[in-house]
């Protein structure tokens, strides 16, 4: 039988081990930066790129760009970069001056899903 004192040490040790485990076990991927930047006014870009803080699952991560009417305007070629698993990108045709919205849905390597969106304006 384990004494009360030993049980206390055992519980404390288990809590410390759980807290010291790598953060990716419970992590979600969130954007670190993007091109164009969130809310920026830019010349027409050829690509929209978002870099995340963790590796993405390519088969479950999507990106799209829509105009102010909600019409999809990207080339439909969104993908996780083969060399940089933290980069999600999509091509866009020459964009007219307007405000556009970028929508992303990603799944991190640990299976957690996050979504978001942001605007940018083409001058």
TrEMBL record:
Residues 1-27 form the signal peptide. Pfam families: CopC. One of its GO terms (biological process) is response to copper ion. One of its GO terms (molecular function) is copper ion binding. Keywords: Copper, Metal-binding, Signal. It comes from the Bacteria. GO terms for cellular component: cell envelope; periplasmic space; plasma membrane. Residues 32-122 form the CopC domain. It is found in: Cell envelope. This is Copper resistance protein CopC. It comes from Geomesophilobacter sediminis.
